[in-house]
Amino acid sequence: MQEDLSSYRKSYEKSSLVEGSIKENPLEQFQKWFYEVEATGGPDEPNAMTISTMGLDGYPKNRVVLMKKYTHEGFIFYTNYNSEKGRAILANPAVCLSFFWPNLERQVIIKGKAEKIAENLSDGYFESRPVGSQLGAVVSDQSEVIGSREVLEKKLAELEKELEGKEIERPKHWGGYLVRPVSIEFWQGRPNRLHDRIRYELQEDLNWKIERLAP
């Protein structure tokens, strides 16, 4: 099977990224871009991000997760700590996050270290989730092999009956990670493939060094 995609072409002309208009702190620049993406009505989930980890098998792996919060410290998401992703982070907390916002022809690439957030913060977020999502976190042994879809649905039905009318406690193997950035790159599409790339790198004095990269 073969398909030639070399004819796919697009001219990026929606915006620019110049040093005179950027924030000194990359988290503030991220917030600015995130607000602009939301204000323009797309994509459906602007908080969707790709997280890359180095797997225990020696291969990097990417998957899309949902960012649930960002602060001056970094970016927070939630998952099963025993999943393939969680085991990879335990072995090597260096990760890469990326956001792609095609409606504004923008990308953000973040390198950082992932660490578990405080248990009370995970408890608070878990309690805010719909009951179905809470049950799903309890039922799913994420990344483990299962015999069929029916096995999962039967387990869920049994748990729904067992916990009906009861408060669902957060499983200890499920919670949040904070990714503390050490490098954040902002990419803005420009005509003729001369894209704008501005990189912030954290220095030893905890200030951010700002550089422009060739496209």
Characterise the protein shown here.
- With 215 residues, the chain is of the alpha+beta class.
- It has helices spanning 26-39, 84-91, 119-128, 131-139, 149-162, and strands at 48-54, 60-66, 69-70, 75-80, 94-101, 106-116, 174-188, 196-202, 208-212.
- A hairpin with a 4-residue loop joins strand 5 (94-101) and strand 6.
Key terms:
nine-stranded antiparallel beta sheet; 215 residues; globular; 5 helices
Compose a concise summary of this entry.
The chain is of the alpha+beta class.
Helix and strand string, N-terminal first?
Answer: HEEEEHEEHHHEEE
Distance between the termini: 32 Å
Question: What's the count of strands?
Answer: 9
What is the mean predicted local confidence, pLDDT?
Answer: 96
Low-pLDDT runs of 5+ residues are none
* Oligomerization status of the protein chains: single chain
Query: What is the helix content?
Result: 25-40%
How many alpha or pi helices? 5
Strand content: 25-35%
Write the layout of secondary structure elements.
Layout: H1 26-39, E1 48-54, E2 60-66, E3 69-70, E4 75-80, H2 84-91, E5 94-101, E6 106-116, H3 119-128, H4 131-139, H5 149-162, E7 174-188, E8 196-202, E9 208-212
Antiparallel strand pairs: 1-2, 1-5, 3-4, 4-7, 5-6, 6-7, 7-8, 8-9
